[in-house]
Amino acid sequence: MNDNLHQLRCFGCGARISGTEARPDFRCADCGDLFEVEFPGWAQRSSHDRPNPGALKWLWRERRCSSEALDHSGVWRFRELLPILDSFGNAVTLREGNTPLYSLPRAAKALGMDQLFAKHQGMNPTGSFKDTGMTAALSVARERGFEWVACASTGNTSAAMAAYAARAGLRSLVLIPEGKIAWGKLSQAMDYGAVTCQLKTDFDGCVRVLTQIVREAPIYLLNSVNPYRLEGQKTPAFEIAEAFDWTVPDHLIVPGGNLANSSALGKGFREMRDLGLVARVPRISVIQAEGANPLVRSFAANHGAVLEPVEAHTRATAIRIGNPASWRKAARVVTDTGGSCLDVSEAEIAIAKAELGAEGLGCEPASAVTLAGLKKLRARGTVAPGDSVVLILTGHTLKDADYTIDFHRGTLLREDETAGLEQQIERLRRNALSVEATPEAVLAAVKGRG
Ligand code: F0G
Questions:
Q1: Pocket residue to mutate for ligand 1, from 34, 128, 285, 363, most atoms within 8 A of Cβ
Q2: Could you tell me if the CB of 298 is within 6 A of ligand 1?
Q3: Is the pTM of this model over 0.90?
Q4: How many other β-carbons are positioned within 10 Å of the β-carbon of residue 435?
Q5: Structure confidence by residue, pLDDT tens digits, 88-126
Q6: Using DSSP, how many helices (H) and how many strands (E) does the chain show?
Q7: Which of 97, 120, 92 is nearest to 192 (CA)?
Q8: 443 Cβ neighbours under 8 A, 6+ residues apart
């Protein structure tokens, strides 16, 4: 039996092609836009390819008790909604997904809210949400017989790609901007055996170089222009709906970099609604760093119709992206769901990250934009006290330990960035103390710090 039920549809001109017809750069031959995976059998209500919502909810829950590797994956557990492989037996999995949905009681209280949650995608095998997309797209690469895979990355994609390629016995090539990714991520690419090239350019420059390479060499591109990545990355939407007993939260708040994740989660919720698994979709908001905010500018200038690339600067290196590939898809998600698109400052990101840490979660800086953004949405009244909100935390706190240490040492931010926020920052800082090796000295250090 062939498990493959998909085709590709151009997001720009609507042209439809089969999966194997896509060009190596995944751009439409007619208009240059990106493709989206679609499942023609789902469109007709009577089609036997159209999934049955009641049966699926039961089956997906049952799989949690199964001993099959594929069922342990929080991506392939939902495989009926991503029939992208000729055989699901070709899936490469590290048991990704099934990530925790934590409540955030302290942040909720501070914001005067009842229902605030964090879906922690940093709890994936390589420590970021990229694993859910990588299991999907790398499985396609293996099934189609590629020996080499490649990506340009701000660090997390490369860590995920290198790990999944190693599992599958494929070789991987990583292009990263020199000196602009966190060490934790660079070390992962090395650990998993990738060929890692640091280029003297930024992320957007790495993308340009790689696009030329894949046009010339038989290397499979695993950046998020690859539409199969988004198929895996839509599955946290299914997990969230399942956790809410097949209702959905009022708001979902997602960090925005290359803008694939917000696009993917929007697709996941839309497909669930179209198939009758849920009755509505949440309002999906995208938050960017002030220095890397091309989508925010685009909404301010022309409601997300045209995007001018920017030169990106932010210490949240994961989202230091000025020319995001999936901006059209993300703009559509924000508009269609009635979400917002806004940016937050470097100090706001650092404070939000420390607050999440103080709740025992921790995350990397790019993830903390979600809490910082929520504060603004609450202040504007866009999020009401009784609304249920889910923040998508995209990466693990250990990915960028330098950032955390610099914050607590007080060396992260410049004075002009912290103006007016000094007291808030002081309350959150927990620098390591240098103490004499005696019980008295340690107890003296503890005193008064309850
Ligand atoms: N958060 C983290 C931790 C990320 O690594 C990224 C993107 C994002 C948020 C933004 O997601 O690009 O889908 O809007 N990291 C990429 C990388 C670009 O190469 O690892 P997006």
A1: 128
A2: no
A3: yes
A4: 12
A5: 999 999 999 999 999 999 999 999 999 999 999 999 999
A6: 18, 13
A7: 92
A8: none
